[in-house]
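Readers outside the structure-tokenisation community will struggle with the description of the input data as it stands. Showing the layout once, in full, would remove most of the difficulty. For illustration, here is how one protein appears when written out as sequence plus structure tokens:
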Amino acid sequence: MTPLAHIAALPVRAYRLIFSPWVGHNCRFQPTCSAYALEALEKHGAIKGSLLTIRRIGRCHPLGSDGYDPVPGTDPEYDAKHGKDRA
């Protein structure tokens, strides 16, 4: 993970440490948004990882989808099956 990605991951780590235990297990996606954010930052760096995370959080609403939604490029079989060249 790049140094800038480490800095971008600090709020996510703080959320997981402080707020996540109080919120409970209500995430509609797998992996959870915080796990997705850390994985996106690690794989794609601070800028693209942050954009992917923002896009993912934007999809989390009552009318949004749910289910398995991996970080682009981490599951080639999923990307190929869904016609997504998202890496």
Q: What stands out?
A: DSSP finds four helices and two strands in the chain. The CA atoms of residues 1 and 42 lie 5 Å apart.
